[in-house]
Amino acid sequence: MTNTFDFERNHYDRMAHFSVGFYAYPIAEILRKHSLVNSRWLLYLFPIFSIVTLAAAYELFEWQYALLGDPEAGAAVLGSQGDVWDAQKDILADTLGALFGMGLFALTVDKRKR
């Protein structure tokens, strides 16, 4: 894809983060199956917020680990492939994956009710 679309970097990392967002679907399924939430809003928002929180926590741990290992090398790793916004874009990819997963969940829940 990098060569086909003339991207400056390899977007495998972004696709992996997007796919992590799909974990929102099983979170919602567990909440629904065990009746852990009473509100339809919470059923849809809690999984998305869970993924965003985990993604942000992961990026913070990655940052701390890189800085503790070698502060100079850590800064290079964190701005991997020349993108200083890499962590924020990774969190966005996780969030978009969660939104997509919850869209699929909404479609399947509505079909099961019919």
Gist?
By secondary structure, the protein is mostly helical. It has five helices and no strands.
Write up what this structure looks like.
There is one protein chain. With 114 residues, the protein is mainly α. The protein is 75% helix and 0% strand. The chain is built from five helices and no strands. It has helices at 12-20, 24-33, 40-69, 71-78, 86-113. Helix 2 crosses helix 3 (40-69) and helix 2 (24-33) packs parallel to helix 5 (86-113). The radius of gyration is 17 Å and the shape is elongated. The mean pLDDT is 85.
Descriptive terms for the model:
mainly alpha, 114 residues, elongated
What's the topology here?
Blueprint lengths: L11 H9 L3 H10 L6 H30 L1 H8 L7 H28 L1
Helix pairs in contact: 1-5, 2-3, 2-5, 3-4, 3-5
Roughly how many Å is the radius of gyration? 17 Å
Count of beta strands: 0
> What structural class do helix, strand and pairing data support?
mainly alpha
Helix content: over 70%
Individual helix count: 5
State the separation between the terminal residues, measured CA to CA: 40 Å
User: Into which percentage range does the β-strand content fall?
Assistant: under 5%
Major sheet, described briefly? none
Order of secondary-structure elements? HHHHH
Give the number of domains: 1
Low-confidence residue ranges = none
Q: Quick one: overall form?
A: elongated
